[in-house]
User: Fold Vicilin-like seed storage protein At3g22640 from Camelina sativa.
Amino acid sequence: MTMTKKLVITLLLLISIAFVHCLAFHVDLEEFEPPQQEEQDVPRRGPGGRSSEGWEEESTEFPYHFRKRSFKNWFQSNEGFVKMLPKFTKRARNLFRGIENYRFALFEMEPNTFLVPHHLDADSVVLVLQGHGVVEFVTDKTKESFHVTKGDVVRLPSGVTHFATNTNQTVPLRFVKIIVPVNNPGQFKDYFPARSQFQQSYFTGFSKEVLSASFNIPEELVGRLFSGSQQTGQGIMRRVSPDQIKELTKHATSPSNKHKETKSKHKDISTKLRPFNLFTQDSVSSYTNDFGHFHEAHPESFDQLQDLRIAVAWTNMSQGSLFLPHYNSKTTFITFVENGCARYEMASPYSFQGEQQQQEQQWWPQQGGEEEEDMSGQVHKIVSRVCKGDVFIIPAGHPFTLVSHDENFVSVGFGIHASNCTRTFLAGQENVLSNLDTVATRVTFGVGSKVAEKLFTSQNHSYFAPTTRSHQQTREKREPSFQSIFSFAGF
Amino acid sequence: MTMTKKLVITLLLLISIAFVHCLAFHVDLEEFEPPQQEEQDVPRRGPGGRSSEGWEEESTEFPYHFRKRSFKNWFQSNEGFVKMLPKFTKRARNLFRGIENYRFALFEMEPNTFLVPHHLDADSVVLVLQGHGVVEFVTDKTKESFHVTKGDVVRLPSGVTHFATNTNQTVPLRFVKIIVPVNNPGQFKDYFPARSQFQQSYFTGFSKEVLSASFNIPEELVGRLFSGSQQTGQGIMRRVSPDQIKELTKHATSPSNKHKETKSKHKDISTKLRPFNLFTQDSVSSYTNDFGHFHEAHPESFDQLQDLRIAVAWTNMSQGSLFLPHYNSKTTFITFVENGCARYEMASPYSFQGEQQQQEQQWWPQQGGEEEEDMSGQVHKIVSRVCKGDVFIIPAGHPFTLVSHDENFVSVGFGIHASNCTRTFLAGQENVLSNLDTVATRVTFGVGSKVAEKLFTSQNHSYFAPTTRSHQQTREKREPSFQSIFSFAGF
Amino acid sequence: MTMTKKLVITLLLLISIAFVHCLAFHVDLEEFEPPQQEEQDVPRRGPGGRSSEGWEEESTEFPYHFRKRSFKNWFQSNEGFVKMLPKFTKRARNLFRGIENYRFALFEMEPNTFLVPHHLDADSVVLVLQGHGVVEFVTDKTKESFHVTKGDVVRLPSGVTHFATNTNQTVPLRFVKIIVPVNNPGQFKDYFPARSQFQQSYFTGFSKEVLSASFNIPEELVGRLFSGSQQTGQGIMRRVSPDQIKELTKHATSPSNKHKETKSKHKDISTKLRPFNLFTQDSVSSYTNDFGHFHEAHPESFDQLQDLRIAVAWTNMSQGSLFLPHYNSKTTFITFVENGCARYEMASPYSFQGEQQQQEQQWWPQQGGEEEEDMSGQVHKIVSRVCKGDVFIIPAGHPFTLVSHDENFVSVGFGIHASNCTRTFLAGQENVLSNLDTVATRVTFGVGSKVAEKLFTSQNHSYFAPTTRSHQQTREKREPSFQSIFSFAGF
Assistant:
């Protein structure tokens, strides 16, 4: 009997194990993840020296705001770095399909460095944020080199071999770049004739026989020059001596010297290649007052930007200022914060709940979700604090504002699909709503005629204005009459 | 022993439960469906007042024909309605990828109503079907308003704030709209400065601090003016008094007054905004005879349509008429039936079996299906009876005809990709096949020279012709000789 | 006790079965595959007479190289054939999305044959490889016919009805065609007014009532003329007598007679339709020396190619020659081998491992793979032997070379996205790297100044050069001094 009992107990134990097993299995299934998912989680790293910081999951963030850490390190060494944002559609496919073919990168070159020659299978536009350098373009017929500095815009056509030198002894050369791939949407590569650490020469793609015959040099030397990567050598940015810098940049011209020719009818490749400056060029549109400055180069005004339909903008806001609410008619802006922090506020009728978390696992159902159109009439509040190094997106048509509080704020932006785009302000002296007839305002906003007359006309500034806090006292003295109008109107 | 027995029986029971459990589990797995699938089946409704009629599954229909009930109610009230077709790619992805970025909507405003100011993140073109109204465009610099009536075409550029008034006391103002989104393919939104029932103001997206500082008004009033939706208030279409209409439309000009200036070189935004009329403008192409009228505005002739490459067409067929078989070289037409019913016949070499049912569940396999090209040489008969309120699609290259039987038939269409498009007729006096040499016709159609000479030249009408029934007697008297040619030719 | 023991053993057995069962279940889950996968494996074939050779899995091949057998037989008879490449994205979606909307076809018409009239829902460009023929365009207003021969380029606009005759008594008429669909990316169809074997007439899409009324012919004759396919009749290519050829081609003009008018301002459809010749037209760019010839028509120079942004190129290399390494700035070339074999070498920074095998089953994970960007800096060697009938792809930016060994080599190519494209050579007299300053070369390649000066300037030929083998003796006599420079430089 005792034996039987023992056996029975053992059996019960076994059975409960079996149960637990089956139960556990249920749990497993609920946690089921497709196997390729796990592979994806394994970080893919380039060989040492290029750490891929990876894509930071920012599950509580708005998809329009890319924090500094969202950048991937494409290259990093003591001589500088290249950081790149992932494809926008990777963040939110439904929201960013219209800018799928654009990529954003940030470059920094230390003093006395040289970025080696290369070309891209992409067109691109560069905006210099800081420092002094020389950029040189080489083709099989000519070469041209230009001094560049803060506010200079450089068009880099697809396939043009180019290199750059930081000519300053102390200040890093810092620039942002918008990249427009020509082969495949949102994908591009750099092509280097010379090998460097972690970067093979494109001549590696050719056999020794071909290289020997092509250069008319002995076959046995080809390997030493081009094969493999330079395991112990330098990266794509290299330290150069002041003498070498002098030699490298001796032919460089200052773009402003050739300013007048920009308007010439002879639109050859060199016109397109000539840099221009956002702060000094006449054709740049500007708004400016005590609270801020705004400079924008339109593709209609600059040959360099025309075929890409890209606009380039620079915004500088004083402490305690407001970039008055406005929207862009057709253009989406990809904006980079160069200095300070600000509050970014945007009204979006698009819903994006769960866009981020679900995207990789559930692409198609989500695509289906896009088709199930949201017709709720709801407006979503996009509010975020953006700081130096962050990127934010302002889609076309979306009313948008920026508020700087404790410090000056500087941002730069590339506008996509910028042909014939207009910026429409919703407040300030130039204000679409102030142009409504009084009766239209009354019927639209359901207010009396006195309120209708004053509602959109009380702001005396244009484009930039002081925040409430920064002029609270002033306003409270000035505006009691307006408040009584509202009281009068029954609010 | 009894105890042992009882224990054993208990164990057996437990084990069978375990078995059943595992078995049930198998069944579960076979019935496994991804959870998001079920979520999709839950209808998403806007708040009351906007019922989403939903997408009607028309499994036995041709994908080219959208019945009246396919429209979704985007807005509906006593003052009027806005109905919208779902994305074309939702109906048949493989057939309609080329028109993915186009949306079609129908508007109706009751007499004495006002459509409140708003803008879209989309370009659009409007064609007025019925009634009289005024459309006004407002920018931060100017405003312009125009009287519009039947046959008027209005270009609405992306981002331009606009509103409309039905100025007629008795007749609804009715128009169709083709919409070309600028942010994301096939997706767009409306942006309203003022709240209304079920529609939030875009100012809801901003904090009170920002709105107060922007408008220079007290913060405590901002909420009352802009937040939330107007739960007990009016919709986006509002009843207005005759006095208000007079006031709202006092600056409106008639587009025909400015007709001559349309040709001026100064192509500013106002030229683009100026409406034109399909029936009176010289640059409109027209065919006309006893059996029908056809009017078409090409993008080459109208600045308003040029950059969108959209054509606008109006067809009016008498009872018992035939729009002679023809095809468009590059343009796909999205056609709306405004009056009557007709038989739509089209020849399509594309197969679309199962396109509709499978699309949501098996998108990629179906995409694969597209790749497995149909090389059967088969031609599919697309025959459908289209009636008032329906939409039908005529893709480029597809031979197509319309037959009206018992009543007059009116349809209007927007042509997509309409630059340098030609319409080629396959029958009638102007007829591509009648221009073949006799020997080419003989070799091609395998007929004798007498048949070859008469086959494509016996129709005396162009563009529109009577149907067989409507002139049967006439023909039977006239054509015996031709029949004998065929007999002679061995048919 | 024994009974208890037996029961216990039975129970243990049952429990182990339950365990095994659960275990097996684990295995099942691991082998789980979605059911629709299996459906895909069922081959879809057209009706007999058109065998679909199908897509040859070339698992060990580079995706850039399409062997002769990759073509599908679209039509084949004693009178000739039409072969077509599958959609490029079917081979490698991530690599070829940029050329998704282009299709490539090869035509061959036997002597004394006629290709019946038809139109396409696609624009296309034809290049004649061999033979003599006449192509005729017919619209509902006009007709024009032209003699064509080797090197002639013919633009076929979308929707234009056309037919062709091989006018030579002995030589087949052979041409290649690039096709740009207008309805849906990468999909197009041919539309035939007349039925032939395995090909229905588009009039089959219409009812007899409509056809009878349209042509004004008796209804009972319509069926005999148009319905069904001509089961016992001829294909789309037909044998014609010398007399019929004479009659069919009597109005044909030679394009060169109208050469001067090509530059006229009157760019009507007939200018676009007029063929031009790659070997005789002045506006064609050419490189030529003892080792090869290269002719290229750019879209900037020819109205026929302008709106499609397609370039057409013809390469002819002598035995033992090298097309010096170069890349195209923006253009992807689709190249067809017309004669001989050559080694194709290309450097690609894109990885494509497993692209082919996985694509149909794992489309989305692979798309995810695209997003997980390869930042390894690795360059892939694409080396392949390409022979008559093969097609190879040269994407924009990719350094590329061709080596002919035992025979003359002829290839022809269509360049996609060819506006403002430049070809940059990496070796030879015109060579981008030879334009680098000496100091830039030294810093970039890590060589001494003597090597830097000679490295990219030792090749005296441009564009085409002899291979190593073909002038080994010459070089060895001439170049010892250069070798000693390298030794001196410490290599």
Observations:
- Chain C has 15 helices and 26 strands.
- The first strand of chain C starts at residue 65 and ends at 66.
